[in-house]
């Protein structure tokens, strides 16, 4: 993309309404525009990151053996009457009537609808296990929408639902989700810690939340200092191997890590004092095992091998896809702007032309742009007729992890400059070497 042809409405001033850094930078970098409280348009740069996050979530769900589908945003109220949640959900649910006075709602989550799909089509234990998920917009009429996309009213969520014959099978599905989530967040450059949680309106006792440590997080968290060092890394995981998956969950949940809702001072105090950490965290996901709560009330049963009929064992598992943009920025920025991890960056590298209109530099930039694209990379070329300082400021604000700077002086020596946004370290090299280096960096992502 060439910046002169792109739509990047960068703001010079700090927007007064933004209280935290991610909200401020998302507005300033022209990623989102608020349309109503907690409701946003995703401008091209924000939309690009959103799609990259979505893609990672999809890939990791499919890797774990889960199957994508798509359910609608609008749901009939009657489904929710069956589970009893139509009345229980309260004011967070946006209720709508259609022209025939039929009661509808904008889905805050999809347990009822997926259970309805299941009961309509699945009848036998032979069709289990089954895990279905979608990535779809949700609406929750939050009392205090704030912090930009972190607590919106309309937000994008991945929600997945497992259907199993036995509790052991359902707990394996729970563990599979935990491990797939660990990899999902790591690919986004995040450390998200699974913490034992309280269940709320979804129901069930077995539940973990995933929290990204950040001083602006809404949850208070208590954890062992060794927990953030745990990494899944590039381990090959066989998601059908129960013992292997369970062992990874064990590894990540044995040390103390809890939110204020489940915190137990007595247990916490058994950790050596210098390892006891108290901080704040952003909830970027949650997994639940809730057994037969919905299958019983909604009649989702299967015939077993001995011919009897039993309600299916279920769980649900959510990732806050749109909230993740905010969480990543909270975890990765400096006073000049965002620093995107390579896994989610909207463009792989920026090209800054120091002397726009100079035939030599223009041609070198064009050549670099084409060479990067030929490697399958997606560069953003700042081809505006602007001062170098303004171009650098834009690149720093929008946070591309790598920048290639091209100017007449360097070209006279046969070099361009490759700069790492995170470290600020610049290196001179030939344009060809810069292309190779970037291709190598992104080969790992
Ligand atoms: N209002 C919101 N705006 C953006 N993302 C949200 C919002 N509510 C929930 N999410 C995201 O969706 C994920 C799954 O939804 P879940 O039902 O667990 O949310 P929740 O526990 O009600 O969230 P919270 O406690 O933050 O209100 C959450 O972990 C979070 O990342
Ligand atoms: Mg939650």
TrEMBL record:
Domain Aminoacyl-transfer RNA synthetases class-II family profile stretches: 38-341
Main location: cytoplasm
Keyword Transmembrane helix assigned: no
Entry keyword Ion transport: no
InterPro entries xrefs: aa-tRNA-synt_IIb (IPR002314), aa-tRNA-synth_II (IPR006195), aa-tRNA-synth_II/BPL/LPL (IPR045864), Anticodon-bd (IPR004154), Anticodon-bd_dom_sf (IPR036621), Pro-tRNA-ligase_IIa (IPR002316), Pro-tRNA_synthetase (IPR050062), Prolyl-tRNA_ligase_IIa_type2 (IPR023716)
Gene3D superfamilies: Anticodon-binding domain, Bira Bifunctional Protein, Domain 2
Enzyme's top EC category: ligase
SUPFAM superfamilies: Class II aaRS ABD-related, Class II aaRS and biotin synthetases
Listed EC numbers: 6.1.1.15
GO terms assigned for molecular function: ATP binding; proline-tRNA ligase activity
Annotated GO biological process: prolyl-tRNA aminoacylation
Top-level taxon of the source organism: Bacteria
PROSITE patterns listed in its UniProt record: AA_TRNA_LIGASE_II
Localization per record: Cytoplasm
Protein keywords: Aminoacyl-tRNA synthetase, ATP-binding, Cytoplasm, Ligase, Nucleotide-binding, Protein biosynthesis
Catalytic reaction equation(s): tRNA(Pro) + L-proline + ATP = L-prolyl-tRNA(Pro) + AMP + diphosphate
Entry function: Catalyzes the attachment of proline to tRNA(Pro) in a two-step reaction: proline is first activated by ATP to form Pro-AMP and then transferred to the acceptor end of tRNA(Pro).
Protein family membership: Belongs to the class-II aminoacyl-tRNA synthetase family. ProS type 2 subfamily.
Subunit and partners: Homodimer.
Listed name of the protein: Proline--tRNA ligase
Recorded name of the encoding gene: proS
